[in-house]
Design brief:
Distance between the termini of chain A: 47 Å
Number of helices of chain A: 20
Shape of chain A: globular
Structural class of chain A: alpha+beta
CATH topology of the largest domain in chain A: Butyryl-CoA Dehydrogenase, subunit A, domain 2
CATH architecture of the largest domain in chain A: Beta Barrel
Radius of gyration of chain A: 24 Å
Number of domains of chain A: 3
Oligomer: homodimer
């Protein structure tokens, strides 16, 4: 069975060395608790939970799957006990206010924890993961009474939460929602409708489940401006917080899926379910979208997680399994064949995985500092600061979610490939990683939706290219000081400077074209997203390499010298072998819209 | 449930119009039987079998899987009856000599049949598919007595065959094989050892299973030059052909796999199993490799098949499912949202699938003519002609197998992506296609092995670049006559001419570098393979577009005008949006070997 080892060395490199989180926390209103000692304790404690409790349940959970009978879902063996341990450890409350039982830490600390949990056992991670959106929604939009009622058990992990958006006839297009909410004389509502694809929609890990539900009031306008938001508990909650009778929300089925078998994907039938409105009438979608950025970054973590998990599986196999001799002569002459890792193409696959996992982690840990500042501004009621950081994070979000989940899937597949035919066998664990990773480009907005969000909403409509100019200015500030440096850092800086200019020029061309042809946005969006991802990841690899080179140069490497050298070498690999893919995406983004639009709908297929 | 419709229009376009198979068959010694009427009857008959019998078993077969108990394997419900229908229809004998009960048709006819069977139900296709290698081996290397004994029931489909190569300690590296064959006084052998990953290694579809087994004689030299080939039946066969007692080969287990659940992957324990040597002692590997090209093209078909299946699933969904409005305004105003197919990014995904499926089919149908000529030369004992066509086919083989299975997997994933979250749900059938497609880049030589075969064996050692020069000369002959043409054909011709020069120049650079650094071959091989695949597919798309344009220009389009136009448009899409990926692969192939070799083996991971 695959083993998980938290990549603490890499995490500390990013936290302490690349992004200087100590200084970052020192400047945050809620950063005082995030002392180096606390961070160290959290990293070590989460690593132990993930390595010893969650990772060993991953393969058995996939094998067993969830159980459904008589409207009730039961998680695979061991999940309930593991969740109890998770809740007892206070892990759910890390980023939530102390007044509701949380630890009040910056949200980035939760990102570090999620990185490990996601890699150790993604299916498990989804149970508490879905609670986060629910908690954030109640925190921001709930009445004081709602907060007092729901938040303490959600923050402690005694209860979990869900987000109920999708219906059978619509997922992306929430304008088509038909679930109804009828006001009652006592000010509550009765919710009726069918929601599907509800992750952790029912299970036996927690005493209650709090559903956040999108529904329409009887007099609501059609479309997206007629959707309201409701809190609907599985078990009714008395004013004293005690759970009472079963509410009218029943699980009708769980889906049989390609992967994430240990995470139930529920069909929920709401029938006259009692609920309370949260946020303003008909403004439910806006409220829901408030936390879209953070939810999507939660899924971006999945991309990194599955790249890391697959890399951690493939690396020891490549060192142990022996096949053929190296092209340049025997490497392990005492054995009948050389280890796989000696073969250049196996190294290419391993390095691709490593570059994706560590490059993606750097992107997420960098973006997490903006999330910290966004939440800080929200807590302080500083709208201008909030808008600034929300905007910055909003530029990262579709790139992180769209690009990193696509590359996470590639990395997961490469790990299988290193195993050869043995990768296809269930017991070896590698194929599960691919099946689990596959959902990441689909839910929480497909890659195509992320691409439209990036190019259409964030770049064109939202900022007229300013968000690209801002990010490339950051790239330029980094690279201009190193343009004439020798060695790999100088080479990377020159490449980055060229890419910064190219990214801007490409964006301008697409903007000009979009004025005359709206379809050209959709035709360019996917390739624009992928181009942006490759160039952004190049920037974050250069940051890491420059930091590593500085440590080597100053002689502070010490026992980490090999680690720093590997960072520089992985960055070089990325620049030489992966970044060139950006060119094909640039050509795709700049191709005429006709390349996809000219064919008649009836001409795609002929009998 | 997904429906399968044989793409007969596309197949006929290739058979009749692009490759003029009528003239090709007229020039073949065994082509006389392949009259237009016979070909039409075979296409229609196979289409009916695939659409009505095999395709409906695909999803249920995946769901049920194979059963193993008491050393016996049972196929999923319906497979036995379907196989009986397949055998009764004489489908197994298409390409085999009439003297053993076959129809003596050119092997390309079998390729057309396999294209449909592979798409309708890949797992089913593997049972009779594995017999082909067994039959070909006995045909070429068997004694007259062995042929008389084994071939009639194998050719009729009453029995099936396997190829037993892999052992637990080795797959690719057959030098490590340890299975032993001990000669007996009566001239037979007793085989003892463990073989794994044996497709169709045991099942209940046929009365007997004939295993072709690689094993070592007691005095054999170590390594690949000490491996011999044996015929080992599941049930002993008397001199009269009657099956008798159970032989000492028992199925120990079947694998639990990511996909192809309806195809049993067996662990076979040989214990003093009676067998007969076939081919010369210690020359078993050479004999086995005789049919490597055709076996690998059999798997290349899988790439096309899963692209086609996923496209056939995604297209109707994209026309039926409605989500959001088109960027340029309502397209289906009578509905609450527009069909997915109006969205440019969905069209990009569908066109990518279509370009892969139809482009790959053209590559295979083109290569099949060389296979016909190779078999013709073998039957005539014309070694020079055999070597010529074997060499040509040998250049295509790793490209078809390696490149088309990688792209088949991409296309399968894109079909899931068109379905959004619904693609992840088992009942919708799209995720099965991805799971089934995933094995194709692993077995019959991983993509990495195909890449080494192409660059190391075929291009560098085998021909010193001549095979690339020959193929690019073909590209040049096609394009030079159209260099100054207007419209899409002229654009494609100019691109092809440039790529022909580029492919040669790149090959020369890699050859020069390989002299000083053997590892550089392995470092370049994967990207060289993918580059070659993209450029070769461009050639086959240009062939199709040129033919379609000629039909349109001559006014012979008639009711096929829309079909021809779609061909040209798909070719344009390929050139504009997919072919540019070749540039990144060129950069990868030309990057220094250091990009993958410089990292110390111990520096790939740090705790």
């Amino acid at each position: 069975m695959l083993k998980y080892k938290a990549p603490l060395r890499d995490m500390r490199f990013l936290i302490d060395e690349v992004f200087d989180y100590r200084a970052h926390y020192a400047g945050l209103a809620n950063g005082g608790e995030a002392t180096p000692e606390t961070i160290a304790a959290i990293l070590e404690g989460a690593a132990a939970l993930c390595e010893e409790v969650l990772a060993p349940l991953n393969l058995p959970g996939d094998r067993e799957g969830c159980h459904f009978s008589d409207g009730e879902v039961r998680a695979p063996a061991g999940f309930k006990e593991a969740y109890a341990q998770y809740a007892a450890g206070g892990w759910q409350g890390l980023p939530f206010p102390a007044e509701y039982g949380g630890q009040g830490l910056p949200v980035s600390v939760n990102v570090f924890k999620s990185d490990m949990m996601a890699t150790a056992n993604w299916s498990f991670n989804m149970y508490p993961g879905l609670s986060v959106g629910c908690i954030n929604t109640i925190l921001k939009f709930g009445t004081p009474a709602q907060k007092a009622l729901y938040l303490p058990p959600l923050v402690s992990g005694a209860w979990t939460g869900t987000m109920c958006l999708t219906e059978p006839q619509c997922g992306t297009d929430l304008a088509q929602i038909t679930t109804r909410a009828v006001p009652q004389p006592d000010g509550t509502y009765r919710i009726t409708g069918t929601k599907m694809f509800i992750s952790a929609g029912d299970h036996d890990l927690a005493a209650n489940i709090i559903h956040i539900v999108l529904a329409r009031l009887p007099d609501a306008p059609s479309g997206t401006r007629g959707i309201s938001l409701f809190v609907v508990p599985k078990f009714l909650v008395g004013p004293d917080g005690a759970t009472g009778a079963r509410n009218g929300v029943m699980c009708g089925a769980i889906e049989r899926k390609m992967g994430i078998h240990a995470s139930p994907t529920a069909l929920l039938n709401f029938e006259q379910a009692a609920g309370a409105m949260i946020a303003e009438p008909n403004k439910g979608l806006e409220a829901m979208f408030t936390f879209m950025n953070t939810a999507r970054i939660g899924i971006a973590i999945q991309g990194v997680a599955h790249a890391e998990a697959s890399f951690q599986g493939a690396l020891p196999y490549a060192k142990e399994r022996r096949s053929m001799r190296a092209l340049s002569g025997k490497k392990d002459p005492e054995f009948p064949a050389d280890a796989l890792i000696w073969h250049p193409d196996v190294r290419r696959m391993l390095l691709t995985q490593k570059a994706i996992a560590e490059g993606g982690r750097a992107m997420i840990y960098g973006a997490a500092q903006m999330a910290d500042k966004m939440f800080e501004a929200a807590a302080a009621g500083d709208q201008a600061a909030y808008d600034e950081f929300d905007g910055k994070l909003g530029f990262y979000t579709p790139i992180l979610k769209g690009f990193l989940t696509e590359l996470g899937l590639e990395a997961a597949n490469l790990g299988m490939q290193v195993f050869g035919g043995h990768g296809y066998i269930h017991e070896n664990g590698m194929e599960q990683i691919v099946r689990d990773a596959r959902i990441a480009t689909l839910y929480e907005g497909t890659t195509g939706i992320q691409a439209l969000d990036l190019l259409g909403r964030k770049v064109l409509l939202g900022t007229r290219g300013k968000c690209v100019r801002d990010f490339t200015a950051t790239m330029w500030r980094f690279s201009r000081r190193r343009l004439f440096a020798g060695g790999p850092i100088g080479r990377m800086a020159r490449t980055l400077a060229r890419r910064a200019l190219q990214w801007n020029a490409m964006t301008t061309r697409i903007m000009l074209r979009a004025r005359g042809d709206r379809e050209s946005i959709g035709a360019a969006s996917f390739d624009f997203l992928m181009y942006s991802g490759y160039v952004m990841m190049a920037h974050f690899w250069a940051l890491q390499a420059a930091r590593a080179a500085a440590c080597v140069a100053s002689g502070t490497g010490g026992e980490s010298a090999a680690f720093y050298l590997a960072k520089i070498q992985t960055a070089e690999f990325y620049f030489e072998r992966l970044l060139p893919r950006a060119d094909a995406h640039r050509k795709g983004a700049l191709a005429s819209a006709g390349s996809v639009m000219r064919m008649d709908n009836d001409s795609f297929g002929f009998d």
